[in-house]
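Note to self: keep these together.
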Amino acid sequence: MKKRLISNILKTSFLNKEGHVASSLSILDILIALYFNHLKDDDEFILSKGHASLGLYSIFLEKGYISEDDLFSFCQFNSKLGGHPSSHKLEQVKISTGSLGHGLPFSVGLALGKKIKNESGSVYCLIGDGESNEGSIWESALLAGSLGLDNLTCIMDFNRSGERAVKLSTCLDKFKSFNWEIFNVDGHNQQQIKSALDKKCNLPKFIQADTIKGKGCLIMENNPEWHHKSPSSVNELEQMLADINI
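Structure:
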């Protein structure tokens, strides 16, 4: 399945010359663990790093939420699949995201709302290390910890893409100081991700998932050139598809 997901992401980006492919690939294993092994009907998932939407859309295709034609229409005029996921166009998207640092504040509100209304289910938010330079992430983390929102899980895609600007080497310590349970996993190891997700906690849960930006596409892995770039020719696409590394 993973090879098919990577292939669909690469093909879609090539067809439309759009998408943050490398960011989408770094979160793919996290999305697989969530959507195929963990999320329940009463749970909510928020992709805060909305620019990695191709990763989410590839999962939606695999789950049967969208068609292949939908996926390949990515970023075209009147397509329901934009560069950032929209809650106005997809019922599976709870909140439109993409403006960096906004997904976790929304998630704190959703988790608190569930508590107030005594609703079942948990809220899962996937953030990036780059967007964690935004103050709204830390304001939200502090609030969630002080409220003891044990129905909230924040997963950081720690692909180190932000380290060219500001290093975030102490995120685990920071979240722990804000009264969160902390876990550090290999973001490409399904067993480790699932084990952390399944762990019952009495506090909000923070999972730092150490990932490789562009994972699965050899030319993209840890290569900042591919932050927002698409395959430029049929030959380049075919070479990438042949070199998929899972």
